Amino acid sequence: MPAPVRTDGGATDAPSPPRSSAGSGFGTSEERLLIERSRKGELDAFDKLVRQYEKSVFNTAYRLSGSYEDASDIAQEAFVRAWNNLRSFRGDAQFSTWLYRIVTNVFLDDRKKKRARPHRSLDDELALDESSVERQYADPAPGPVEIAEGDERKQLLENAIATLPEAQRAMVVLYHSQQLSYEEIAEITGQPMGTVKSRLNRARLALRDRLTPVAELFDGATRPKEQE
């Protein structure tokens, strides 16, 4: 069986991978070797792949679901599906892109079953515009007022993101949190690039509309753009 996925809070501390273009194929030569060995049924090789990607997979699942418990289940199921379907991975795109597609599909399948929208805390804030609906880093030494305001902004933003339709929420997480390119998201979701861009734009507009009543709290942050 694949190695168990970490479910401790520390898993959410992993940095997002840099945005890159799809279609660049396998990753490092070491990863390529691990994938080939895993495809032959070598569990120890797949265990190493799990450990390499467990934090990133858990982060993605957590930002999609908003729940530690659901994220743990989604991550576990994603790695099980990856193990069972390794032979279908041809190496045309990054292994991580293929893996994020599985995570997204597991999340959407889970939503279809539960039809629940949890409002529990996301691990990182997301800013509000095209250049940064992404991580907001706190001041190294914020004061009490800044901490209180930051917590309030974070909760309001989390709640707003949680109300987005699942497809739009997935686009926001993959693009702004995981820093994937439009091409990679199109590959993951099976949607045309134009659809990816339009859904991201609609998501930003929806977030802006939901947060307009409390816009003064976000004066220090950037606003969403209406067009790409």
CATH C-level of the largest domain? Mainly Alpha
Spatial shape:
elongated
CATH T-level fold name of the largest domain: Rna Polymerase Sigma Factor, Chain: A
Low-confidence stretches: 3-26, 116-142, 222-228
Counting DSSP E segments of at least 2 residues, the number of strands comes to 0
The major β-sheet equals: none
Please estimate the helix content. Answer: 55-70%
Order of helices and strands: HHHHHHHH
- Per CATH, the architecture of the largest domain is Orthogonal Bundle
Averaged pLDDT, please? Answer: 73
Q: How many domains is the backbone divided into?
A: 2
Q: How many angstroms does the end-to-end distance come to?
A: 44 Å
At the fourth level of CATH, the homologous superfamily of the largest domain is RNA polymerase sigma factor, region 2, helix turn helix motif
Based on CA atoms alone, the radius of gyration comes out at 18 Å
How many alpha or pi helices?
Answer: 8
- Estimate the strand proportion: under 5%
Structural class: mainly alpha
